[in-house]
Structures are given as structure tokens and as C-alpha cells.
Amino acid sequence: MTTQQQDGGWSEPGQQQDWQQHYPPYTEQQQNYDEQQFHGQQQAYGQQQTYGDPQAYGHQQPHIPQQPTAAEQQYYARPYTGGSDAEYYVPQYTVVEPEPEPEPEYVLPEVPVSAWSVDNSRSAWISRGVLILILLVQAGLSFRLDGSAFPQEAKFLLSDGELSGLVSQLGLAGARALSLAWALGATALLFGATRLLFNSRAGLAAAAMYSVLESTAFTGRYASLHSLSLFLLAATLWLLARTRQSSPAAVLVAAPFAALAPFAAYSAALYLPTLTVLAVLTAYRFRGAGAFVRGALFGVATGALCFVGVQVAGSPSGWNVQGTDSALHLLEESAQWGGVVLLVAVIGAIGFVRRARMGEMPWAEGSAPGAVRRSLLGLTMCATALLAPLYQAWLGNGSSLYVHVGFGLLFAVPMAGLGVSRMMGAHFRYPQIGIMIYVAALVIGMAQTRELYRPPDSAAMIGALREVVDAKGSYLTDDPEISAYYLRAHTEPGQWHQAERGAALATEVKKGSYDVIALRSSSVPEALRGNADYRLLAVLRPSDKDGGQQPYRIWVKR
């Protein structure tokens, strides 16, 4: 008889059942009871925060599993101490890795430290090419100036000096072309000296600013020895920079150039002390105390050569002539002719004192010059630009000041080039600043040169005089040098005399000793008005009506 009862646990006779499947041991029952109690606590806690159980939130958005923090791991890993078989409970969770970022479609190549390396063949050729363009601009600014000879040019070409005699054989056009060659050479040497003292960028900026100055364009089209004197000073500066790392005796090669400069133009004598100081400052970084020996050798050699030159050729004239010009007016004019360059030079000197290197060349080796040396170098070069204006203002003599200003700027321009380079920044970060400074200097230089370069319009006057002069007469004129130069084939220089005004002119007219009188005057002088001994031959008005020149009036003795 078989009896089946769902809850009774009876079985058919003859079949042996494993009663342990229905009734586990007491220890296992206790363990199951403890696990159910623990899961109940977990379910209660999971209503607040659950890992890996999306059913716990029901009405909320699916929860994204996250890796538990250290505090949570400590909570879930607490050991159960309710029984002897204590175990650690480690929750099951999944760490979601972040998705990788997509690969970029284009990867920029690595940027080099500098696109223009230092002291290699490419940079050298680039510098030479830019320098040639600068010299072409300078030549164009000088060639645009034209006209008849200035009285000083004519006097120079008629002088008895050996050098002026050689130059006079070239004529006015040849002498002006030679002056331009010397001026271009001075600009090129200035670039070389600045490159040796600082770098190529500063050298190009210095050459660019110097090439557009009023004094540079003027002397390049002025038949005199001013451009030769500038060339000698620039050559001396370049040699001082070139021999700065050599033995102190190597500086003697620069002494002859410095000694010859004052004999070409007396104003160059003001800058011999500056060159002596630069002989020390340029070499102190490399020679230390030996730089003072170098400066002493240069000063003694230059002084000895100048003494010999004075004994042979005499002292240069014109360097200490007193005048009546206003000192304040001369300083104002000097500021107009060179104020922009001097301002940029001061900015460059301040930047050089604050930082020796720009920082765009981290591979540059060697120690940088000290702050004291940088300060002295900047002060010397900037202060040199003030020598000619201050000296001529003290004398009250403004003769050729517009030319002499350029001598001092020759020493200040290297600092101006460094200032332009610093303001543009590393790797030409702000090139517009350099362009603005260059354009401003160019426009100012062109306007000032056109205003100052106004030779007398003497072509018509010379044509009229050629018909009435000969080798026997005596002539009175406002421009005896011009007349003597252009009429040298018909007269001798001694036949021409300088005209005066007022009582002196009346006295000469009363004597009647002059065969021809040529004056530049807006009206007839009182001494010649109604004079029976002279007749008015011609009134020649200048072709440039806006030039401010007076017409020529020519009287011939009856």
C-alpha cells in the first residue's frame, strides 16, 4: 500500500530516501538563517544605495555601477563574527572603463626651437640679402637729391688739399658718387659691428634705421669728406668689435682709422674718447683687466698718430669757432633730426641692462656680460649721440649741425637696433613694431632731407655770367665759390670776392672796382639803386618757387 502525502514525508516501501536532503544538520540551518538575516540588512541598506541591482530603484533611472570608495569597501568587507566560521563578504560589482578618445585626424609636427639657426650658412646669406636691400634703399634716398653745387661743395672741389685735389678730378657728380660709396660702406660696417656686439637681427635693424636718417641721406649726396670721416669711424668701431677676443696689441690696427677721421672732418675728434672707452668695454668680458691695457694702447697710439698728423698737415679748422646761434634752438633742431633714433636706443639700452639675452636661442653657450658692463655700454653709446649737439650749442655755432648729428648717431644706432629687436620679440613675434619704427624713421628722414638739401639754383646765373666774365676782371658775388667752380675755365678763383651788405657794400660800389656784381636779393640794394656806374643786366628767379630762395640780380659796370 502506497501512501503519498505532500507534507508528511512518507515514501513507498522498499525505496530508501536520503532524509538529510529534507532535514539538513543544525549547523547548516543556523548558517542559512544567518545569511538570510544578513541579506535582509543588505536589502534595507540597498534602498539607499545599491551596487549592481537595478531592481532596487524600480521607478528611478537605471543606476550605472561604479567602483566603491575605500569607505564603502571597508563597510562591505566587515567580517561576520556571529559564528566560528567567520567569513568576509565581498560584493559583486563591475568597473566600467571610460571609452577611449577618438584618434585625431591630423597631428601637428613638432615645432623646432627656432626656424632661423644661429651662425650657419643660411642665416648668413639671409642677412647679406637683407643688407643689400637696405643699402639699395639708402642709395635711392640719396640719389633722389639733386641740384647744383652747394658753396661748401664748390669750395671743397677748389681747395688745394691732396685728397680734395684727387676728388675734384672726378667732378661734382663723381665726388658725390664717391661720397655715396663711403656712406654705403659706413652702413655695412655698422651692421658688422652691431652683429659682433649683439646679433644679426640687431645689426640689420641698426643698419635699416641708420640708412634712412636725414644725415645719412644728406652726406651720401654731399661732395665733401664728411662721409669719408664717417666711414673711418665705422671702420674703427668694427675693428674694435672684431678684435675684442684677440690679444690687446691687436687693437693697434684700429688706431690709424681713428686718427685719420678728424682730418677728414673735424667733428670726428669729439668721438675719439668714446672709441677709447669702447675699446675697454668690448673686451672686458673676454680679457678682464687686460681690457684696460687694450684701451691704453688704443688711446696712446691714436693720440700719437694725431700729433704726427697735426705736425704734418696742421690742425683741422672750424672745430672751435664761436657763433651767435641760440643754444635752445640748436638743441631743438638736434632733437628733430635724431630724437626718434635716440629714444629707441635708450629703450634698447634699458632692455639690454635688464636682460643680457633675448631667450630665443636656448642653445647659446658662454657666460653673458654682467649688468655693470651692460649698463656702461648702453650709457656710453646713447650719451655719444649728445656730444655734437651739446658742443655746438655751447659754441653757439650751428654750422653743419644737421650733418654732425649723424656722427653721434653712428654710435647710438647699435643700441637702437637692439631695441627694435627686443620690441619685436623672440621669433619675430611682433614684427609690426619694427615695421612701424622703420616707416616712421623713413618718412621723417625723407621729409627732413628734402627740406635741408636745397642747393642754390645757380644754373641760370652761371649761364648769364659766362657771357660777361673773363680772366682779367674782378667780380663781387654772394656765392664766390659757386661762380669760381663753374666758371673755372674762364676765370681764376682769386677773381671772385664775397659780397657784404649795408655800408660795406655801399663802399665797394662807390669805388667801382668790380666789373660784375651778382647778388641774391629780393629787392635792389640801396647802394645800387639809381647808380650811374652799373646797369642791371638780369633778374633771374629760381625755378623752385617754394624753396624760399631769393632771385639773382646781376649788375654790369658801364
Task: Explain how this protein is built.
With 558 residues, the protein is mainly α. The chain is 53% helix and 4% strand. The chain is built from 20 helices and five strands. The chain has helices at 26-46, 70-76, 121-143, 151-158, 162-168, 171-197, 200-211, 214-219, 226-242, 255-264, 272-287, 290-313, 327-354, 371-384, 387-395, 401-424, 431-452, 459-465, 480-486, 503-511; strands spanning 475-477, 496-498, 516-520, 534-540, 552-557. It has a five-stranded mixed beta sheet, covered by helices on one side. Helix 19 links the parallel strand 1 and strand 2 (496-498). Helix 11 packs antiparallel against helix 14 (371-384) and helix 13 (327-354) runs antiparallel to helix 15 (387-395).
Beta strands, count: 5
Helix content: 40-55%
Strand order within the widest beta sheet: 2-1-3-5-4
Mean pLDDT equals: 82
Oligomer: single chain
Flag low-confidence runs: 1-23, 42-60, 112-117
- What is the count of DSSP helices, taking H or I runs of 4+ residues? 20
What is the distance, rounded to the nearest whole angstrom, between the alpha carbons of the first and last residues? Answer: 183 Å
Short description:
With 558 residues, the chain is mainly alpha-helical.
Question: Could you name the key traits of this structure?
Answer:
five-stranded mixed beta sheet; mainly alpha; 558 residues
Write the SSE topology:
Blueprint: H1 26-46, H2 70-76, H3 121-143, H4 151-158, H5 162-168, H6 171-197, H7 200-211, H8 214-219, H9 226-242, H10 255-264, H11 272-287, H12 290-313, H13 327-354, H14 371-384, H15 387-395, H16 401-424, H17 431-452, H18 459-465, E1 475-477, H19 480-486, E2 496-498, H20 503-511, E3 516-520, E4 534-540, E5 552-557
Parallel strand pairs: 1-2, 1-3
Antiparallel strand pairs: 3-5, 4-5
